[in-house]
Write a structure and sequence with these properties.
Blueprint lengths: L16 H13 L2 H9 L4 H6 L2 H5 L19 H14 L4 E3 L3 H10 L2 H17 L1 E7 L9 E6 L3 E6 L2 E14 L2 E12 L2 E11 L6 E3 L8 H4 L7 E7 L3 E5 L25 H20 L3 E4 L5 E2 L6 E2 L25 E4 L5 H19 L17 H7 L1 H33 L10 E3 L8 H13 L5 H8 L5 H15 L31
Antiparallel strand pairs: 1-15, 2-3, 2-10, 4-5, 5-6, 6-7, 7-8, 7-9, 11-14, 12-13
Helix pairs in contact: 5-7, 6-12, 9-10, 13-14, 14-15
């Protein structure tokens, strides 16, 4: 299916999906102006059809009265959740391996530091939007191998068959000025089993795609004009799509019956928006109590120092002794008869703190994380990795769910990248290699704990030097471990063999130990 000629934009298939993503994005990006705009729209068809108009009106960020926007405070909990999700997955980069050494060398180039950064960024934004797209790109002017890039889910129109990605159209706005919107569309699909990419440049409006123009009509797409064929197509020269979709979590509860949304992932923020809103309201109320709780003094006119006609009057707050002042009986004198009254409202610290902590606990639990992952309930004591896992069991369960989606996607992406590397750059890797993806352990014991364990294993003669080195340095390669074992043996020397293990012919002697053929000793 080629790129469209003209149509309304965004496509109608996304009418329900994009508004939800815009809401999650506003929470994730800490854009309070967008939150106020989203929740102030009380007549949106999506909410009317779901009977949620009344609920929207009760949203703190949708209220028009009461506190002004400048006095509403926002806690970036949604951003913290999404960042924690990415850190649990990619704080330690995954290891992708193949059996062939030359293929492994090319894979290491492709899945290098830049790819690790792309994966972490994709996982963070994907936690907010419910999923992310990763694609293989190549540009011979920029790199001598393919590389990975991400596309956010709110800039994609995917097509699924049997729950699997069959094609996808990405778009980006390259210019928006004078009422005209220029868009670059990029469609990925298969033709005759070979993955192809079709590029198109469109000039339209905010609501319409407009007419298609040659790619060289705009600077943002001029570079593609030199590599596409007459139909605007670039071939990957290899079988299969060069794009994978990675759902954040599955299933999507809200869109189970939606023809497109049922195939998309679930945002970590899905369903907790009212809790996030209530947390902001609690925090704003707490700060309002602090503002109102500032001590204020109301003084009668008779207690002020008159500076003369036209010069006003002031109250000296540092004055310790006042002369007798004439206070009429009807004045607002204080209980002691002085015309000075102190006003200070109570700051409800405990009530606000307990409410905020309860809301935060529920937010994290509903999002699939343990409070300890975010530093809550921490007593500052050093914990072993086993203790950390026990305390953060909820977070690690969520991590495992997400790894189940990322592992096959990364294996597929790496296989496609190696195929393109061979077809375009003649990288020399084998195309029949199986890519193994290992996410490793995101929590490791301290060096002190590991050293104690290694020492205990040594004393119990339960592990070799190599195993103990691997335990101390789990991120080292096999060669690094072997080099360290060799260095240890050279520095400390080989341990003397146990005579009992050598037998009667030990130490290179023949015959009985301690005797030789010319030994004339008796006994």
């Amino acid at each position: 299916m080629p790129l469209p000629a003209t149509m309304t934009w965004p496509p109608t298939q996304l009418d329900v999906i994009l508004p939800a993503m815009r809401g999650w994005d506003a929470w994730y990006a800490n854009r309070t102006d967008r939150l106020a705009q989203i929740y102030a729209q009380q007549t949106r068809p999506a909410f009317e059809q779901s009977g949620l108009v009344g609920a929207v009106r009760r949203f703190f960020w949708g209220a028009s009265g009461g506190d002004t926007p400048s006095k509403k405070l926002h806690l970036p909990i949604a951003a913290d959740i999404c960042q924690a999700s990415a850190d649990l997955l990619f704080a330690t980069p995954p290891t992708l391996t193949v059996a062939d050494d030359k293929t492994q060398a090319r894979l290491d180039l492709i899945i290098g530091a830049d790819a690790h950064d792309q994966l972490a960024s994709a996982a963070e934004v994907g936690a907010a939007l419910g999923g992310t797209f990763m694609r293989v790109a190549w540009d011979q002017d920029l790199a001598s191998h393919p590389f990975l890039t991400r596309v956010d889910a709110d800039r994609a129109l995917p097509e699924f068959r049997w729950g699997r990605l069959a094609a996808v159209t990405f778009w980006r706005i390259v210019e928006d000025a004078d009422g005209s919107v220029w868009r670059h569309l990029e469609r990925h699909e298969q033709r005759d089993g070979i993955g192809i990419i079709e590029h198109g440049l469109y000039k339209g409006t905010a609501a319409h795609l407009g007419r298609r123009l040659p790619l060289d009509q705009h600077s943002a797409t001029r570079g593609f004009a030199a590599v596409v064929d007459a139909d605007g197509i670039v071939s990957t020269l290899t079988p299969g799509l060069d794009v994978v979709y990675v759902p954040n979590q599955s299933p999507n509860r809200a869109w189970r019956d939606h023809p497109l949304g049922a195939n998309l992932g679930r945002s970590d923020l899905d369903g907790i928006e009212p809790l996030l809103d209530a947390l902001d309201e609690t925090w704003s109320s707490w700060m309002r109590d602090i503002r109102l709780g500032k001590a204020r003094i109301v003084a009668a006119q008779s207690a002020l120092n008159d500076h003369g006609p036209g010069k006003g009057a002031t109250l000296d707050l540092d004055r310790e002794v006042y002369e007798a002042v004439n206070t009429p009986p009807s004045s607002a004198a204080g209980a002691e008869g002085l015309p000075i009254t102190q006003i200070q409202f109570k700051i409800r610290v405990a009530e606000h703190q307990q409410t905020a902590e309860a809301l935060l606990q529920q937010v994290l639990q509903s999002a699939g994380y343990s409070a300890q992952t975010f530093g809550a309930d921490s007593d500052g004591a050093a914990l072993t990795a086993t203790e950390v896992r026990a305390r953060e069991a909820r977070s690690f369960t969520t991590r495992k769910r997400k790894i189940r989606a990322w592992r096959p996607a990364l294996a597929q992406l790496a296989g496609k990248a190696l195929a393109i590397d061979q077809a375009v750059f003649r990288g020399g890797g084998k195309l029949d290699e199986t890519v193994t993806v290992d996410f490793g352990d995101s929590v490791q014991d301290s060096q002190e704990v590991l050293a104690s364990t290694a020492q205990a294993l040594f004393q119990a003669q339960a592990a070799s030097t190599k195993i103990r080195v691997q335990m101390m340095h789990p991120d080292w390669s096999e060669q690094d471990v072997d080099d360290e074992v060799t260095a240890i043996r050279l520095e400390f020397g080989e341990p003397a063999p146990d005579p009992d293990d050598l037998g009667r012919g030990g130490f290179g002697l023949s015959g009985d130990y301690g005797s030789s053929g010319d030994d004339d000793s008796e006994g």
